[in-house]
Amino acid sequence: MSSMLDKNFDLTMVGKNYLSLLYSMEYTDWGKTALVVDDKRLEYGHIYSGILSEMDVAFLETWGEDKGISPLAGIRSFLTPRTVSFSIDKQVVKLGRSPYQNYLELLRKFPNLFGIEKVDWSTVGNEQEFNEFYFSFCRRMSQNCFRFRTLQNMNLQSFLNLCPKTIIDCFLHFKSHLDQNRKLELIPLHQKTFFYLSRGFIQKKLSMRGNELELFHLLLSLLSPCFELNEESLSTQLEDVFKSRGGICKTTTIREWLFDQSKPWSLELSSFEGIIHPKRIALMGGQPESMPIGIQSRSKIFRSVDVQLNSTPELEDFFGEDYFAFTESKRIGGQHPFWAMRKTKGHYRITLFSLMGKGMKIDFNKEKVIKILKKDISTILGTEFRPEVISIEFGREICVEDNKNDDRLQSFFGKINIVDTSSPGSEVKLKNVHYFGPLKMGPLGLFSTLMEIKEGIRVV
């Protein structure tokens, strides 16, 4: 078993969460040494890693069963069912319940998305059968992806081969409607806005376009129940498993990063252990904060501004305990594309996505953010709302604008560079430093990251 007396590590993971622990376990299972550094300057946002679909849950469940990781095999004990409401131009679409109930809600609000001009409710189908088809498919698909699929051989056909006809028919109508009407620019504005908002919330990509794999994943996610993961409890139990397999966790900050010929040479920890030497470094989180590491993307990046509001009777009555995502059609392509809200610890936390710029300061955004939220919530409630703001700060969530010009899947992830920013004006592209998170623009949101980290040591 490794100890902190050993200064050399095959992998040093920066950022402690259930995903980084699973990735690091892949190293220890191969007989490699792994250190997870719990540096609070790099974390995922809760929307990215803490809101799961049935596909995500079934994938993690399979991972736990196949790898003998009991907390992961029992992941459903860490989940709380939630609903999520998408509000677009005063229309609210409430999802996150059973697949059948979600399908009915989509039919009510967007019937022609599924090739139906007027819904004949007598022909919609059997609820129990529809739900069983959906859950059985998610289970088979997740097992197939975990056991047999890689990033290189993952495509739409591999999913459709396992898919029941009922869901294939839904998807083909969904895709056909979007394809035909996009070419003729006939998609109604409220449908475009819903597509834009749901992709942002689910896949963390802001775009009016999508390749067929992205569309299929989006539809499956819209049909899925919504689960809130207790990340802290799961991570605590996974940490015990990781340590039992020879891994080490350390809560500290990294004081200094040194590279030699663009490769990791040493990290100086703020704790008494001092300097360590990693062969590889992995970063798991959103955007690194106050670290001499930069992640360069060609796309526009939207960072979250987190606003905490006092709970009031009017907020309680309308929003309750579940998730609420809001936008307007006029915000598509704008600086503040959407926001999402949830109740946490007796308060309401709003995550407003804001276009990231150099030298972005929270003080410059406070007044504008409060003005936006006051107007939006007043519109939603139908009465003037005066927010009781507890705090405003930059959050961990990241959304990326997908500006591709065609719908073909050119590569599974977007192009990023990881660079050493310790010397201003002389940024050096790094080797053997890897990033896993929303800045890579995976087509399937969290599921893309799950697919990447399950390959573990084999992808690096």
Short structural description:
The chain is an alpha/beta fold and 460 residues long. Helices cover 36% and strands 26% of the residues.
Give a short account of the largest sheet: 8 strands, mixed
Strand content: 25-35%
Radius of gyration: 22 Å
User: Helical proportion?
Assistant: 25-40%
Number of helices: 14
Poorly predicted regions are: none
Cα separation of the termini: 23 Å
Query: What assembly state would you assign to the polypeptide chains in this entry?
Result: single chain
Number of strands: 21
Q: What does the overall shape look like?
A: globular
According to CATH, what is the class of the largest domain? Alpha Beta
CATH superfamily of the largest domain: FAD/NAD(P)-binding domain
Domain tally: 3
Category by helix and strand content = alpha/beta
CATH topology of the largest domain, anyone? Answer: FAD/NAD(P)-binding domain
Mean pLDDT equals 90
Question: So, CATH architecture of the largest domain?
Answer: 3-Layer(bba) Sandwich
Strand order across the largest sheet: 6-5-15-16-17-14-18-7
